[in-house]
Amino acid sequence: MAGHIIHRRRRKLKSEINVVPYIDVMLVLLVIFMVTAPLLTLSVDVKLPSSTARATQDREEPVIVVAYPDGRLGLKLPGDDSPREVDAARMEAMLAPVREQQGADFRVMVAADGDAPYQRVIDAMDVLRRARVTNVSLWTDSRANAR
């Protein structure tokens, strides 16, 4: 037995990556996304509420801030016939004495055109927040129908 030489063949190492398991995983993920994607894009039709409630009776005429579609702001103080165009800093300065005079009952209504982006309304409310106005309401047209 001493004369027998055992020759072992060395296995040659592969320098390639076996991608078959990765392809299987990718196909499973593709199926999962194909099944769940239509469920994520479902939309819900919402019927906006409408109200036939009458407006509340106020003792004083409210201060009205108008947000125009192009980004301008208007301010209608009690006694004014129509809103006058003002910038944010001027509005803050004009609201300070009215807020001091009316005290805790100071209320501001924000009005915007139906075509105005909602961002314009938020911008107007930010100006009011900087002016330390805490009682803010949205002005609506009671004659308009909900969509």
UniProtKB/TrEMBL annotation:
Name the Gene3D superfamilies on file. 3.30.420.270
The cross-references to Pfam families, in alphabetical order and at most eight, read: ExbD
Q: What family does the entry list?
A: Belongs to the ExbD/TolR family.
Designated name of the protein: Tol-Pal system protein TolR
Subunit structure as annotated in this protein's UniProt entry = The Tol-Pal system is composed of five core proteins: the inner membrane proteins TolA, TolQ and TolR, the periplasmic protein TolB and the outer membrane protein Pal. They form a network linking the inner and outer membranes and the peptidoglycan layer.
Q: What is the recorded function of this protein according to its Swiss-Prot or TrEMBL entry? A: Part of the Tol-Pal system, which plays a role in outer membrane invagination during cell division and is important for maintaining outer membrane integrity.
Q: What does the entry give for GO biological process?
A: cell division; protein transport
Any one GO molecular-function label of the UniProt entry: transmembrane transporter activity
Q: Which HAMAP family match?
A: TolR
Q: Does the keyword Cell membrane apply?
A: yes
Highest rank taxon of the organism: Bacteria
What organism is listed for this UniProt entry? Answer: Luteimonas wenzhouensis
